[in-house]
Write a structure and sequence with these properties.
With about 500 residues, the chain is mainly alpha-helical. The chain has 24 helices and 5 strands. Bound molecules: zinc ion (ZN). The site of zinc ion has 6 residues, from α5 and α8.
């Protein structure tokens, strides 16, 4: 019971945090990008690859893999850092620069060392505001995935400002050593070689000679010294797994990730040089798919991805990529078919369900409303902070003539995008339509309470809710939990 209450309040606080972040930043989203805000890239396949590589390490470190989150940051520079608790951030620049999968695993193990060591506490003490700030950006991104930005299955989101990146700084040399040592321990426990970490740092070691502004941020956040590298060399050589070969499935996933990122992020002509038509590997076809797609050469993009589908007919990510290309070019029927295949081979992937439902709804055929609702319900159960999914769900309910659920979904979307007044209006309308104390009614009331408290805290005029069946204790607990977060946020905003 206690635990349940805790989760309940935590969830409330979380939503409140989210909404504040959104309210603060949404108006300047487009600018955030120009100013170099932290942008989170989402892609079902890459997220799954990062999970594959990092989960055994988190477990070896005694962490709950479900509570550590790994984010992909769209940024050319080389960096990896931990912020706001158990959140690991990896720059696309680092993933592209890595020579092999062991380097990426080594970096993840090192970051995990910072989490599992006492570093985080000390680290956050001085920079509490800044780290929480950067995480708000991430939460915002998660909420706003919305834009659905249609970038070949990837949505790019902007969050906090440059400040976040600048501020998430520098561990001490002692902490660096400790994180290296911890990394070796985790890698030993998982019977993997730590040589990747060494070779990665070897590359960076040369940057010590550069002037600060030319160094990669990684070198600033994790001081690389020749001493550190030589100690690491010694320790790695003592490991019984120093020469353990990389796991084939990791190598495969890593190469796919690099090909996809390369094709997606680098100029198409550069991609076509690195992966010329003569290269018949899976990776080359994959990278070229994205290069052609970005050149708006739909025919060639489809030819490349179809070759992969013929070769690997059970691979959900190839169907996902194909679905995206088709959808964006207006081939809606075919997009639905491609996404259906993706869902068929990977039914647990919320992002596939959202894409499929979006394509279905775009066809505007009444017969597809029901299936779209089903896919979106599944998606929001996995990703409750995905406002885009909620918006699609409200469209689907509207078409299906279910006004009560449409109101509730709309309220969810507005809550996540910081549109407070309309969130309350919809939450109230939803409550009127549902039977009291049903889960949907409770949730609608939940949203109303969250938004009202939020408005009160922000000093906006709002009518206190009279018709609440919540107990005093319940309300009090919620408000305090929320209040604490709010104070923290105010401090953060004051700092910037
Ligand atoms: Zn470090």
């Amino acid at each position: 019971m206690r635990r349940k209450n805790y989760i309940y309040f935590f969830r409330r606080a979380f939503v409140a945090m989210l909404i504040l972040a959104v309210a603060q930043f949404v108006p300047s989203l487009s600018h955030a990008r120009d100013k170099g805000g932290l942008s989170i890239l989402r892609d079902a396949e890459i997220e799954s690859t990062l999970r594959l590589l990092s989960e055994p390490i988190f477990i070896a470190a005694g962490l709950d893999p479900n509570s550590v989150r790994t984010f992909l940051v769209r940024d050319k520079t080389l960096n990896a850092f931990v912020a706001g608790g158990q959140n690991v951030f990896l720059h696309t620049g680092l993933l592209l620069a890595a020579d092999n999968v062991d380097e990426v695993i080594g970096v993840i193990a090192h970051e995990t060392g910072h989490i599992s060591g006492s570093h985080l506490a000390r680290y956050e003490e001085g920079l509490k505001g800044a780290t929480a700030y950067s995480v708000l950006g991430v939460l915002l991104g998660a909420a706003a995935i919305a834009a659905g930005s249609g970038d070949a299955g990837m949505a790019v989101m902007m969050g906090s400002q440059e400040a976040a990146r600048r501020s998430v700084l520098s561990y001490s040399r002692i902490q660096e050593s400790a994180a290296d040592q911890a990394a070796i321990t985790f890698l030993d426990k998982t019977q993997q070689s730590s040589k990747g970490l060494v070779s990665f740092l070897d590359q960076l070691g040369e940057q010590e000679l550069l002037i600060t502004k030319n160094r990669d941020p990684y070198v600033r956040s994790h001081p690389v010294t020749s001493e550190r590298i030589s100690r690491l060399h010694d320790n790695v050589n003592k490991s019984p797994y120093a020469n353990a070969p990389s796991r084939p499935e990791y190598v495969e996933a890593f190469k796919r990730m690099q090909a996809k990122l390369f094709g997606y992020l680098k100029p198409p002509e550069v991609t076509l040089q690195k992966y010329p038509e003569s290269d018949q590997s899976l990776y080359a076809y994959y990278a070229r798919t994205f290069a052609y797609y970005r050149q708006h050469d739909v025919k060639s993009a489809l030819r490349e991805i179809d070759t992969l589908i013929t070769r690997y007919p059970h691979d959900p990510y190839f169907y996902d990529t194909k679905g995206q290309i088709l959808f964006e070019n207006g081939f809606l029927d075919d997009a639905v078919r491609a996404y259906e295949e993706a869902v068929r081979y990977e039914p647990d992937q919320a992002m596939f369900r959202i894409s499929l439902a979006q394509a279905m709804l775009s066809l505007e055929q009444p017969i597809l409303n029901g299936p779209a609702v089903k896919h979106l319900q599944f998606a929001v159960s996995r990703e409750p902070y995905n406002s885009f999914a909620w918006r699609q769900l409200s469209i689907a309910y509207n078409r299906a003539g279910n006004e009560a659920m449409q109101r509730l979904s709309t309220a969810e979307e507005f809550l996540l995008t910081g549109k407070l007044e309309p969130a309350i209006v919809n939450a109230k309308k939803a409550q009127e339509s549902f039977e009291k104390n049903t889960p949907a009614w409770v949730r609608a009331q939940d949203i109303q309470m969250t938004v009202e408290s939020l408005m009160l805290q922000r000093g906006q005029k709002t009518k206190p809710k009279k018709d609440s069946s919540a107990t005093q204790e319940h309300q009090h607990g919620y408000v305090s939990a929320y209040h604490e977060k709010y104070q923290e946020l105010n401090t953060i905003w004051a700092m910037h």
